[in-house]
Design brief:
about 40% helix, alpha/beta, 3-stranded mixed β-sheet, TIM Barrel
Amino acid sequence: MTVSHTFPAGFAWGAATAAYQIEGAVTEGGRTPSIWDTFSHTPGKVAGGDTGDTAVDHYHRFREDVRLMAELGLTAYRFSLSWPRIQPTGRGPAVERGLDFYRALVDELLEHGITPLATLYHWDLPQELESAGGWPVRDTAYRFADYAALAAEALGDRVSSWTTLNEPWCSAFLGYGSGVHAPGRTDPADALKAAHHLNLGHGLAVGALRAALPRTAQLAVSLNLHAVRPHSSHPDDLEAARRIDAVGNRIFTGPMFHGRYDEDLLADTAHLVKWDELVHDGDLAEISRPIDLLGLNYYNPTVVSSAENAKDLPRHDGHGGGPSPWPGAEDVAFHLANDNVTAMGWPIDPTGLSDSLLAMHREFGLPLLVTENGAAFEDTVSPDGSVHDPERTAYVRDHLAAVSEAIAGGADVRGYFLWSLLDNFEWAYGYEKRFGIIHVDYDTLARTPKTSARWYADVIRRGTLG
């Protein structure tokens, strides 16, 4: 029997993007380099030597892209603001030309009946702030709050939903721990310091946004919470899962929602940082300022074991090898949840999404958004130019079913944002991996909706999976 998955009235049907991945125009309108400009131009850091210099030229083609969103029936669009486009050095006044681009983009969205959700930080720290120390330096959190105020003052009359940070775990631990993301540093102590200052920046930005925005504005953060599962019930595997949960999840959720860093996390990492010096009086109160929505970015579960119990098991490293992005848990072994994987090598398991949403509902009691979910596959372009991607359609269908199941279980999920609207610059993978429901020909930049886009449009129209 076919189960009908129907979504509540007012459910936000969206797609998501990030500024550096799609905008291009990296020297126009007063924009200066971000850490991703510097990183992508450093030989050996990005596959194929690719950069975001042009990306998919959304800066010049945003009206076409909004028209495509409208044709698909999207009711919401989650995008990020480029910090160096708005405040090029990370200090001082805003550049009006940079703000004008976002004013025009938001106006275009509103004219097409699409609700804009703005993310302040999707990893593009102004290079000048990185040169001054980056996120491991406390001052960066205060600069972020200043930038938040500038953005809110300029766009608050148009944008009513704001997200402070996207995936701070990646910013801290892939950027400063393993070094596979910009700025490419590999110091576990700096990664932990970056995590705290990202938390502090979030709290300070919430305060700045509350001061600048109407009382009706809704504030959020988007976390890539790891759906951590022990490989077995062996005590050593349970301990491995605890350690990954501490530095993968609770390092953010603890201070943001409970006003504390858990004692086990502090003990796991005490050999790396002096927490009593890193965390100043008043920091935790600042970080735990109330927000209105909590975003979850989900792609796959995280299955772990102790190294001792992994000797005869296939290993999995989803972060490129090299230095560990898991300070205090460097010897934990990672495993595939199953062998049904995407082009990224990530296992497909929608139960992790429903489990995470229900766990978040129980612990935090906040309205939830799925702010990213999607998959890369080896898309096939037919001789007639059409793009058939049945694997992506199946992936999204199964994950939307998981969202519906979480809603049926009591989770207050308000929307789903498919990653991604467009094929784009996929960070260290360059242009090798395609996540979009709209195909982009990187030579001509022509856009072609894939069959998954047409399917998604039909789901939006009906409000149900059938």
